[in-house]
Amino acid sequence: MNLFRLLGDMTHLLSIVVLLLKIRTVKSCAGISLKTQELYVIVFLTRYLDLFTKYYSVYNTAMKLVFLGTSIGIVWYMRYHKVVKQTYSKDEDTFKHYFLILLSIILALLIHRAFDVIEVLWTFSLYLEAVAILPQLVLLQKSRNIDTLTGDYVFLLGAYRALYILNWVYRFLMENHKFRWIPWISGLVQTALYADFFYYYIKSWKNREKLKLPA
Question: Is 212 within the bounds of a domain?
Fold first, then answer.
């Protein structure tokens, strides 16, 4: 465990806290993409299969259970909570996310470390996580009116991935950790997708303006 990994995990956890705060306190999921949240459930379900086969530490197990449990809980709130589900922006959340699932499956079958079920599903989860934010970003571009908690949530998600890249660089340079190009490239693609959002988020924060994305 190094500082970048810890900060990455805490930033990821904070993003979930912000989203749950919006859903539980405000009783609203306006501006949140259900499709992105469903993709994250698939990501965590396929990545954390090693919960049943390997033990690393109490911290590792606890964080996996938290991310998996909260992602399922968020989807439940958005789909079934009698108040929250009425605030879902269904007409704006139109990205065809099943194409992302199909593309990630094909890539995982073609490009992987080892051809067995656990490894292929782990690779699939990396590819899918890299693009899972796309429905959310498209929804925000359509809505143009982004509340503070939603903007903070997306920013923290992007910051988590950027910190994880720094964690990999640190481990490669300081811990002789071998280069694993699949997670590195997936992480870089994922971070790059946030670049435009980062620019407008920081700009709005600096100018104390409401966050708006160009169409």
Answer: no
